[in-house]
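Take a look at the protein record below with the fold in mind.
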Amino acid sequence: MKSLFCLGLALALMALPGCEKKGVEKGYSIAVIPKGTTHEFWKSIHAGAIKAQQELAAQGVPVDLIWKGPLREDDRDQQIQVVENFTSRKVSGIVLAPLDSQALVSPVANATQNGIPVVVMDSGLKSDKYVSFVATDNFKGGQMAGEYLAKLLQDRGNVILLRYAVGSASTEDRERGFLSAMGSHPAIQLISTDQYAGATRETAYQVSQNLLNRFGNKVDGVFCVTEPSTIAMTKALRDIGKGGGKVKMVGFDAGSQSVLDMKNGDLQALAVQDPVHMGYLSVKTLVRHLSGQPVDKRIDTGVILVSPENMEQPVISDLLHPPLEKYLK
């Protein structure tokens, strides 16, 4: 009887919440799957994920962080394959930036059904089969960019919106936010809103050239919704002698080239996210869930409008110059 009592007591103690920490101490394998791996934005996401990994290790929670994304930022099929491979490998959890809000629904649902929780970051998914969505309020970012461009143009002129790609929820939200802001400025005419830059600087530059060949003599302002398209359009404007603020240019995300273009006066503002914090919070949120702690379904990582007037402020300067070398060795 005594032995049965001791066995029952031991089983009861194992069931207490405090004993869950023992499972955490064994560590987790977490796959982080970005949209791509070449742009500075994703390198910052990677740095944030490693920052979280290092912090968790110091707390006695080892995390095997596996970073793998598609070679091209428009390769939906490869990203689906990456998710499916990690599901087959039975990793502890997945952090995913979906290339397509619809195409990744089924792979995420499959991972969840197989007991692998998914945290979605950066770009939304048309599903609720995930633990948490950690991202910028991209609609707000687009609105901020639109209002600032309207201010630069003194509420009049011809404007181009250069989109990114069909199915990318984050950039579609930026586009909707920008168009919402433009709706409050009826004297501003949108002369092009249906062109897509694509995933690379090369495709974005070609599209930018085509747009400026058509509208270069009458365009007054441009908004681009990604880092590559911002850089490409700024270069295309310089090429036709419209740099230096002759055409007001507002972009999204803070790549090193965009920061230089803003210092040189070719770019008037950037809507800036905090990708280091996004990567950090995504990993931390997944580990919290894996350890049995509650997490918020939606976590906003913030967005700020940066211009030459405020870019040297310490907090903003840190966003423009993330410490990648500290984490990516």
